[in-house]
Amino acid sequence: MKHIGALQVVVTAKGFDREPTLAELDAIELESPLILAEVDLLDAQIKAMDRPVNEVDERRIRRARNRVLAARRTLANRATDTIVPGGAA
C-alpha cells in the first residue's frame, strides 16, 4: 500500500510561510478595537442563547452593538482621513 501524501505536490505556497509584515501588524493593531467589540457582541449573544432573553440581556446586546458601530465609525473615519489628500490645514 502506497502513501498518497508523499506523492502529492505541496499545495501551500511557500510565500505564506512567513511572519506578518510591519504593515500587516499595523493594520491589525488599527482594527483591534473593532475586533474586540465584535467579540464582546458575540459573547453577549452567546450568553443570551441558553435562556429566554431578559431585560439585562437585551441591554447587554444593545450596548455591545453600539460599541461595534462606534468602532466601525471610528475605523471608517480614520481610513477616510488617510485617503483624502490635501485636507484642511
3D architecture notes:
With 89 residues, the protein is an all-alpha fold. The protein has 2 helices and no strands. The longest helix is centred in the C-terminal third of the chain and has 29 residues, at 55-83.
Question: What topology emerges from the helices and strands here?
Answer:
Elements: H1 22-49, H2 55-83
Keywords:
mainly alpha
Summarize the structure.
This protein is an all-alpha fold.
The main sheet comes to: none
Helical content stands at 55-70%
Structural class: mainly alpha
Put simply, the count of helices is 2
Shape: flat
Q: Kindly provide the radius of gyration, computed on alpha-carbon positions and rounded to a whole number of angstroms.
A: 22 Å
Low-confidence stretches: none
Strand element count: 0
